Amino acid sequence: MPERGRPRTFDRTAALRRAMEVFWVKGYEGASISDLTAAMGINSPSLYAAFGCKEALFLEAVEFYTQVEGTDIWSALEKSPTARQAIERFLRQTAKAYSQTNRPQGCLIALGALHQDSSRGAICDDLRRRRAENRAALLKRLERGVAEGELPADFDCRTAATFYATVQHGMSIQARDGASRTALLATVAGAMAAWKVLAGTDAA
Fold first, then answer.
1. Which letter does DSSP use for residue 7 in this model?
2. CA-to-CA distance for 168 and 13, rounded, in angstroms?
3. Which of 69, 112, 131, 190 has the most Cβ atoms closer than 10 angstroms to its Cβ?
4. Taking the model in full, what pTM does it have?
């Protein structure tokens, strides 16, 4: 017999997606168990039986988010032929992803939990690690540009990676505050105007 409160044909992935959307809108601390169960269509005992606890549910929802949301952002970084184009397309895809109207605006990884929480930091630590990995992906692409001779040998890849990661995080906050895609793309244009300053050259 199905557990009381759980639909007979319980779709765990669909429930996880709905939980992800609640966390995306409200953050870890802001999302209550009642918010989550209402969105997921199950009761709290079923939530705990299926996912363990709120913390475990959040961590799984964030992992799911990395697999299904914003993939075009990171593929643009890898597939672009030059480092400059990679960074620009990365930011333009960010503007597109963060401003879509059929889902929450901004980024769950940037906005999900910015303070130490009741889980003794496990949530914040996970998101901090993911943000560091994203910055590392930017660094790797810039270092490739140096290795391929596109960028000068003294190009400060670490500073540039931090700068463009910071721009992306700022775009997440602006999107959450209601910034339009046009406004976000204007931010992209400003960030790319800084490219020559960072490179100390006219490198394209």
1. -
2. 28
3. 112
4. 0.88
User: To the nearest 10°, the Cα dihedral for 96, 22, 162, 200?
Assistant: 10
**Is the pLDDT higher at 50 or at 120?**
50
Q: Cα 73 to the chain's mean position, in Å?
A: 10
Closest to 21 measured CA to CA, from 9, 8, 38, 5: 38
Distance CA 183, CA 38 (A): 34
Structure token pair of residue 139: 């660094």
Q: What is the helix, strand, coil percentage profile of the chain, to 5?
A: 70, 0, 30
Asked if 91 and 164 touch (Cβ cutoff 8 Å), the reply is yes
Judged against a pLDDT cut of 60, whether residue 35 lies above it is answered with yes
Q: What is the structure's pLDDT at 201?
A: 59
CA distance 109 to 168: 11
Which residue type does 39 have? A
Whose CA is closest to 31, among 18, 12, 50? 18
How far is it, in rounded angstroms, from Cα 184 to Cα 171?
A: 6
Angle between helices 12-30 and 33-40 (to 10 degrees): 160
Tokens of 15: 């429930």
Q: How many CA atoms lie within 13 A of 116 on its CB side?
A: 2
Say yes or no to pLDDT of 203 above 70. Answer: no
Compute how many other C-beta atoms are within 10 angstroms of the C-beta atom of residue 196.
13
Reported as a pLDDT band with limits 50, 70 and 90, residue 151 is very high
Amino acid at 179: A
In 3D, which of 144, 164, 142, 65 has the Cα closest to residue 109? 65
